[in-house]
Amino acid sequence: MSFAKNQILTVTIESLSSDGSGVAHKDGMALFVPDSAPGDVAEVRIVKPMKNYAFARLEKLLTPGPARRQSDCPVSGPCGGCGLRHIEYTAECEAKTRFVQDAFSRLGRLDVPVLPVIGAENTDRYRNKVQLPVGTDENGHLIAGFYAGRSHRIVLCEDCKLQPEWMNQLAKRACALLEQAGASAYNEESHTGLVRHLYMRQGWHSGERLLCFVLNGTSLPRERQLCETLQTEFALTTVLVNENTARTNVILGKNTRTVLGSGFIRDTLAGVALQMGVHEFYQVNTPAAEVLYAKAREYAALRPDDFLLDLYCGMGTIGLSMLPDCGRLLGVEVVPQAVEGAKKTAARLGLTPDKADFRCQDAGQAAAALAAEGQHPDVIVVDPPRKGCDEATLTAIVEMAPRTVVMVSCNAATAARDTRWLADHGYAPQRVQPVDLFPRTKHVEVIVWLSREK
Q: What pLDDT does residue 1 have?
């Protein structure tokens, strides 16, 4: 059987795919249906037939599945950020566990225990950072929202359930003040207009608040007055302006200046006191990140005299949170601002470079250099971006021969791929622990514990 475009079929949704779509089968062929839930019986319309499978659209829900719930966000469909808001959280956790199990068994071809996902304490209002593109509505008014799936069309969301209420309120108020001041929204097609993004960040434990205007230019009209108004109304700790005049989809430019306040906010993560501006990587769900770091620390099982290498270390939080268990820490990160932040954090903690040091270098190059120097970390923690580790990094890890590797990843597929590579080169995966840092979305974090085979 082959599917035809616009063909209507009645199907039962069996499970969820890793992108959050419902999965059904018809005559042995798979159908992928967004916005559906396990157990749904529905009429679906084929929108993109392929050779052995098809993508379909939910046309009519005939019988809701037991996991289905009413979404409490009116734009969760077109926005696409909360791809799982229409199912119960217990079912979401079960699905995310299966996502990870499937990645390691099918893609990684690994027989390793994948534990049930550790669910989040807070499923709403958990984000400590948001970057909202600024545009105009059909009446020409400034709005800030989220890009619709697979597009750069802004969907206005006046109350995003994932972020604190003050961020939603500030976005609306800032757009009104910008419009009154005569500021224009950036148009990426013509590379004209001024305001590109509103960037907000909050210290989860400290409560300190940061606002940054990302501009296709150098300054805002009536800048001081506008920023002081927002600072007063929203108790902002600091207000910044970032210049990004490049024709690019990258959100932040290199130059940031402080308009009001210190230029940074303070917070703690897993007991580590931090300062951050806009360039530093910081997990967006602080309570869940602390659960993640505690589990990574458990798997590292450090000893008092151990040398710990933290690759892709960001602001150094994972390594610094583990430092009480070991003798020496070296962190490697390619973002200069993050490395400077990590060094300042270490200095504030009274740590000398022989105890905790950080290098601004590509992880693969740094790992290769350390291996060439004959340095042999006892434990390596690696937290790569979504694309995973490159082969140079993995090769250097093996050459340094640590007894334990702890991999933290936001992409189960690339984590499974890299774990397979390490398994083929002498490192046996012991356990995989998913942790839900991103409730109501399709994303899930994983920790992989590997030990050198003897």
A: 64
